[in-house]
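Handout, page 2. Input:
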Amino acid sequence: MTVPARAAARARGRNGGVIATIAGFGPAFVAAIAYVDPGNVAANVSAGAEERYALVWVLVAANLMAAVVQYSSARLGLVTGRTLPELIGSRLSRPARLAFWAQAELVAAATDVAEVIGGALALQLLVGLPLLLGGVLVGATSLLLLATQQRRGQRTFEAVLIGLLAVLSVGFAVGAFTGRTDWGVVAGGLVPGFPDGTAVVLSASMLGATVMPHAIYLHSALSRDRHGGSAQDLPTLLRTNRWDVASALCIAGAVNIALLVVAAANLHGRGSPGTIEGAHAEITAALGPVVGVLFALGLLASGLASSSVGAYAGSEVMAGLLKVRVPLLARRAITLVPALLLLGLGAPPSPTLVLSQVVLSFGIPFAVVPLLKLNSDATLMGEHVAGRGLRVVGWLVAALVIALNATLLVLTFTGTA
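Output:
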């Protein structure tokens, strides 16, 4: 073979490798929906309105931590061919397994409350629908999304959710490029620091809501189901999933930073909006009705996508821990009840959404600690057991996330948050 021919062959091989890697993307993008849910919207808008750009570094750190945790979940599913809930359940006695399932279901219910209320609030902002009716419509739409997964397969489901991720990305990011953003000052926010006591509380809230338990449980199942029958060797799949996680969380991180930037550029100095609806009103007044509509559309896409992902995760948790697989659509219909009940009773949407994030924080150690222990188990993972670097970073991340969530809980229940 001539030198030019060998060069062309190498180029084809590289291009084929890139194409194969991109074709393997999907599971992490579904899991990343959890990182741009309505709870994140509330936290990031409040942070920008109150502290301007000072906490940009918190979002960057949060995404780096999330990448370690989500990749660990994906590699567990790929290497073992089992989900995180299955592996946890196989190591627990029946009473312990039932107790673990109970806390996981509580977390799932809190997740659903946040997503349905966020979507209902978006419909109220867009077309003035009553919150209860909006919640019903969000629930019905999420049922259709889940039916897509069951009837059309995982790849179609992934494609739909990635489309919603694109919509919410545009909806939340457009304001960052149409407002009065000072990108030099934004870069200054990459320097870690807390300008005041309020910044500490906000940082705990932002980081505490970053690593979502249901996304950790689900990612192992998504990766296993997507690549279980793949002809690619395991090292190639693990490399593909590293890029999948990195790409998805880069997008999620950019969206979260955009939310903070929009609030910092347009809301700071006007008094904290306090609620998502207050932030929407201020953004509309500052940037015009088009940007306001895009913001509300982003919130709607966020609620719809994250609601479907949360229901999917709850189904996998139940199947793994109890060996019971309730039809996904039936489970979704049942889990809508708490959120619709709260809306029907007139619970204020934004405070209820924030409270749901506090409940979620209780479930984080139950997901992260077993995940890291299983990845470090040589008898389970074999030659793919987590290396020393990944173990050290993983436990540091776990310690930091747990400590910050504990701080958030203490501040919340002592009335200082």
